[in-house]
Amino acid sequence: MTPVSSRLLVAAALSLVATAACGGDESGQGGGSDGGNASTSSGMGGMGAGMTGCGTMEAPTLLDVADLSPPVGSMGPNQGIVHVFSLPTAPGQLPDVTFLFGPAHTAGDPPDTFSFSVSQLAGVFTYTSTSVVWPQAGHVEFGVQSPVAFGNGCFYKFPEPLFSYDVTP
Q1: Where would I find the beta strands (DSSP E) of the chain?
Q2: How many H-runs (helices) and E-runs (strands) does the chain carry?
Q3: For a designed S-S bond to 147, which of 35, 47, 97, 155 qualifies (C-beta 3.0 to 4.6 A apart)?
């Protein structure tokens, strides 16, 4: 994903409202690797192909992403869109991250109040955005600037783009 610097989706410190403590072990082993062959609950093959070890800054480990909504490749009305994703094998809660628009993004900038909150259930961290209506119909594409360091000495990356869908008027 090529970041478009004039279209920074969320400033360097993403506002995350924590509702649970961090989890995972100190080794950075999230477990649950499927070798890249299984589909996640988002229905996206290959999205669950991460977490096979401790990544480096130069070669970060791909995070497992599940429950992605809206799904990549989907289309829907530009009304009250809530973005959701889960990290079932992450070594803990995401640190502050930067979200960047991809080169295909044409739907405009979100409101200043756009942010994500986090919840945890059975060791799975789920991130849910505030509801958004994009300034215009078009293509939405954004993801997380990588690599991401969770504080366990390991580096991780997200599938790119994380969100990619079309909105209609």
Answers
A1: 8-10, 16-17, 61-62, 66-69, 75-77, 84-87, 99-101, 116-121, 124-129, 138-144, 148-149, 155-157, 163-168
A2: 0, 13
A3: 155
Q: Give the full edge-to-edge strand order of the sheet including 8-10.
A: 8-10, 99-101, 138-144, 163-168, 75-77
In tens, the pLDDT along 37-49 reads 222 223 333 344 4
Q: Using one digit for the tens of pLDDT, what is the confidence trace for 67-118?
A: 999 999 999 999 999 999 999 999 999 999 999 999 999 999 999 999 999 9
Q: Provide the phi-psi class of 71: left if phi over 0, else alpha when psi is between -120 and 50, else beta.
A: beta
Tell me phi and psi for residue 5, to 5 degrees.
-60, -30
What is the residue type of 80?
Answer: G
Q: What is the DSSP string of 42-71?
A: TS-BTTT---SS-B-SSSPEEPP-EEEESP
In contact, 18 and 96? CB cutoff 8 Å? no
- Please state, in angstroms and rounded to a whole number, the distance separating the CA atoms of residues 38 and 32: 11
What is the CB-side half-sphere exposure of residue 135 using CA atoms within 13 A? 9
Residue of 133, 63, 134 lying closest to 93 (CA atoms) = 63
